[in-house]
Amino acid sequence: MDPVRATRDIDRAERSADRGPEPRGLGAAVKGDPVTEEKVTDEKKTTPVVAEAEKQEKILNALQSVLDPEIGLSVIDLDLIREVVFTPEEAEIKMVLTTPFCPYGPMLINQIQSASETAAEMPVKVTVLPDRWEAPPWLR
Fold first, then answer.
1. C-alpha gyration radius of the chain
2. Number of neighbouring beta carbons within 10 Å of residue 60
3. For residue 139, what pLDDT band results from cuts at 50, 70 and 90?
């Protein structure tokens, strides 16, 4: 072997050793690198948005069991729940009542709070909005 060529081969080997291991970027994840895939999966599990969406779904599913005693339909079917908002400390459910002076209002609020706290596993505050309730089109 040519001594000059042997020196070049050694120099290349030393330079690649100085650079360290090959970078592990997106290509590694695409190829199915289990370490990278595991990290990506763990990051998805802990994102606040995903956690909030899961809690919101649990709350809304739990509220299907809370019925308006006069109409006999759930607060979800009656479109009484307007919004579910999360803070680090608690969840807030914003709702309307079927009538401004609904005689079952306090009972509904307590049932909504209880069912939501059980589903979300965190404190829940229920806020009654002054908005007017309109029956869903299928109920008219």
1. 29
2. 16
3. confident
What number does CATH give the domain 48-139? 3.30.300.130
Q: What whole-number distance in Å separates Cα of residue 22 and Cα of residue 16? A: 9
Sign of dihedral through CA atoms 112, 113, 117, 118? negative
Q: Where are the beta strands (DSSP E) in 1-140?
A: 81-86, 91-95, 124-128
Amino acid sitting at position 59: I
Q: Using DSSP bridges, classify how beta strands 91-95 and 81-86 pair: parallel, antiparallel or unpaired.
A: antiparallel
Tens digit of each residue's pLDDT (9 = 90 or more) over 37-63: 444 444 445 566 778 889 999 999 999
Please tell me the predicted confidence (pLDDT) of residue 37: 46
CB 112 within 8 A of CB 66: yes
* The pLDDT value given to residue 17: 54
Phi, psi values for residue 74, rounded to 5°: -70, 160
- Confirm if 128 and 109 have CB atoms less than 8 A apart: yes
In the chain, % helix, strand, coil (3-state, to 5) comes to 50, 15, 35
Q: What is the pTM of this model?
A: 0.64
